[in-house]
Amino acid sequence: MYHIGIVRTALVAFLCGIPAASIEASPVIVAGNGGDLVATVATAPTGSVIEIRSNQTFVGTLSWANKYLTIQAGAGFKPTIKGDPGQAALISIDGNATTGGEFKGLRFYGTSVAGSVYLSTTSTRFSTVKFIDNEFFHALLIGGTGEYQFAGSFERNRFLSGVHVGGTGNSKHDSEFRDNYFASRVTMSGTGMTTNNMLLERNRIAGSFYFGGISEANLSLVAANNVFSYSSSRPYGIGLEIQGADWSSNQAHFVNNTVVGFAEGIQVKGNVRATFENMLLKNEDDLEFQGSMASIAHSLISDGTYANIDGNIAGEPDFGPLWQLSPGSPGIDAGNNAAIALHKVDIEHKARIVDGDFDGIARVDVGAFETIPEPQSACLMGCALLMRGVLGRPRVRRSDRE
């Protein structure tokens, strides 16, 4: 059954059995199942909004060139996009800086090739792509060869497998990840003359993060207000693994991140300039810097590495259930307000730089969460500080690399 009516000035196609060729850039509404999403995408004019009012699975590679399309789920629907068996790309877009696509409220499943969701091209041009409120059920691979360019924005998505951003040749990436959940490992790498610029902000990553390039790769990363965690009874792996080859030019800046539950919290080695500030680390071993171009300051490092150096402190963080700081934690008001790339809000969009320990001075907390004190917290804070003074400070381990 079809229901026809006026919707909006943009093209809205609710995929069903209507032939794709009949879609025009005019107010259209079509409701039903059984549509051909691949054909609809191929023939829709630039600026079209393709809205899917169906919970069915659409199979095939979505491919277009030199136009901008929005593909979104209708209210109350969760359509699935699945790669065509035997095809390496689930989404392939060729265009320029003003063309591309936006994907909202969709479920993505991988192809038969390595069971992954591919976003790739081998063209010399690539477009701006946005993913908002989607679910990825297989690993997301973003990459290509040659001189292609990619600009991606990822907001409020759930990645239920790994994510890899890479490339070869003279490729260039500019990717921003905000307010996403990652259930597994995230990697950012490149070979040849690859240039990758990445922003990680307010994400929860239940796994490790790898950053590194080989050959003459030029990688740049800013990571702020993220939680990197490994939830298990036994610490495992490396939380943040930062590397650089002799000829690469890589730099990474981490500010106000929480790294917990790993066998090793942070490992930096090779030719890479890495800075860490306002960090909160609670791991079996927190830090290993192999080289002279890594630094950490104004951070709570639980195992005592670099304690009393560059504003770093040691001690138990006193976590809440989601890794937020509990009243009386030594991490409250322990950060540096002048930290590079300090953001205005924390992982929960709460304001940064407040007086969390009631001493009359507003200072940023360490880690991804900012403590916003409530009136009743003052008593708890006082009791916690009193007990800390009675029991004494925990013993700390001075680094053998001081």
Structure, explained:
The chain has 2 helices and 32 strands. The N terminus and C terminus are likely disordered. The radius of gyration is 24 Å and the shape is globular. The chain has an 11-stranded parallel sheet with strand order 1-4-7-10-13-16-19-22-25-28-31, with no helix packed on it. An 11-stranded parallel sheet has the order 2-5-8-11-14-17-20-23-26-29-32, with no helix packed on it. It is mostly beta strands and 402 residues long. The termini are far apart.
Could you tell me the strand content as a percent range?
35-45%
Let me know the number of strands. Answer: 32
Q: How confident is the prediction overall: mean pLDDT?
A: 80
Low-confidence residue ranges:
1-32, 393-402
Helix content: under 10%
What is the terminal separation in angstroms?
A: 74 Å
What oligomeric state is this?
single chain
Give Rg in angstroms.
24 Å
